[in-house]
Amino acid sequence: MSRVEDLLERTCKNMIRTILRCIPFAYKGTIYRVGPMPTLQAVRITSGIRGKGLDEIEWGLPATSDYNPPGKSWKEYSDHPGRPLEAMGWCVEKQKSWTAENPYEDLRSVAKQLRGEIEDFYHMEPVLVRKIDLYGSCLDALPYPLDWQGNPIWQDTEYVVVAVIKIHFRPYTIRKDDQSTRVIQELSRSLGTEILTLQLRETLLKAQREFARQRLHSCELLAHELRNTLIKFAFILSAVNAQLGILRAEWEAQLKIAFPLIPWREAILQQLEVLLSRGMSLVKGDDELIHLSRRLSADHEEMKTMCLLPAQYQQWLAFKIVPKWEQLFSLTSVFDENKVQIRHLISHLEEAIHKVTDKELILRISHLPQELCRRWVDTAYIYFTADKLEVLDQAILLLSRSELPIGNRHQMIKVLRSLKALVELVPEMEEKADRIIYSLRHSGGGEPDGPASLEDLSACSLM
């Protein structure tokens, strides 16, 4: 690590430590450097998570992250049609903060958009530095980044973004524009000042020209290969898991045939919906209650129609259904008569979402072969990832069995075989990207001696 990078990391750790001390509900902080223009590579500098002790912080990068070195270029995380929206893209382009005060409705949650998984409660704050302070008066020649329509960003603003601060909070302790976000905003200005005091303006401009002259072509190829690989990979994973979701839905249909008297997920949710409607019929003119009940009703309906894994249903129940019911209980007394029944139904719902894989229940199925049932459950109740290629073979073999009571199984086999061919193509794409990354990383010489130099700044790439 160069001296400039070491100084930057220590500065960022001090900033994270200060924020966690000032905001008791915050438990984790991460700072990303952004730059240089026009590639705006966003790279995670360091992350700190609150330890057991009051002032104890554990430092380090996560094992895997798109923003770990070498990070992501502006072309990869900016807003673009057909690609998941990222909070990083918003902060950098708009030079405004982004607060995920309700992760279930977060429009820029990549995990939710790609995998349906709920992320964290967090606040992201851009670190701004005035252009004239960083680049001097020669602003007309700056190579501004472009949005997806080819329009330059930042051209009409006084600032550039040199870093982004991300702070994670305990559930429901962060609100947009509350005191915590204002504290982070004030401290972000301090971080911008500390970055500026490195007095590297002329060296950074020279590093930018050097970067553009020597490595622009390699960076464009790298961005292109990685973008294509990530887009393909995201599509393949979601498509395969959608097919597994169909297998889960068909399996649950067979369970209802075998055990019609057991209260399954849909029936319990319908009972909850009836009790919700009955209680809300007594509420008049309370817009807050009406809005909350409509959201809860929509959650009931969506949970009925989805084909998720039990763990995903558990998250849905814990983070969407239960909190809204408890909020209703606290806001009105119309549900007091049925409160115990509602809580019992929620408890039964939790049992029902896990009962679909109950081994003892499977042994009692008589209208299907036991061996087929076991294979069906073992195949359908897996979340497909890149390291589970064998799941595709298992699903194809399962669907090839004539005794499987699924009407469109031949069409599903065709789809899964096509997806398997794409999955097997991904490693080749990754290998090409790795070669470009290796070439990019090893195209320069070693780190020179003496004070902070052009090479130091090229490696650091703050802006």
Give the helix/strand layout.
Layout: H1 3-22, E1 26-34, E2 42-50, E3 57-59, H2 74-77, H3 87-94, E4 98-100, H4 110-115, E5 121-130, H5 131-135, E6 159-169, H6 179-196, H7 201-258, H8 265-280, H9 287-305, H10 310-331, H11 339-355, H12 359-363, H13 370-380, H14 390-399, H15 409-441, H16 454-460
Helix pairs in contact: 1-6, 1-16, 7-13, 7-15, 7-16, 8-9, 8-11, 9-10, 10-11, 13-14, 14-15
Written account of the structure:
- The protein has helices at residues 3-22, 74-77, 87-94, 110-115, 131-135, 179-196, 201-258, 265-280, 287-305, 310-331, 339-355, 359-363, 370-380, 390-399, 409-441, 454-460; strands spanning 26-34, 42-50, 57-59, 98-100, 121-130, 159-169.
- The radius of gyration is 26 Å and the shape is globular.
- It has 463 residues and is α+β, with helices and mostly antiparallel strands.
- The relative contact order is 0.12.
- The chain folds into 2 domains: 3-198, 2-Layer Sandwich (Beta-Lactamase), CATH 3.30.450; 235-424, no CATH class.
- A hairpin with a 6-residue loop joins strand 2 (42-50) and strand 3 (57-59).
- The two termini are 18 Å apart.
- The chain has a 6-stranded antiparallel sheet, with helices on both faces.
- Helix 7 packs antiparallel against helix 15.
- It is 56% helix and 10% strand.
- The model is unreliable at 444-463 (pLDDT under 50).
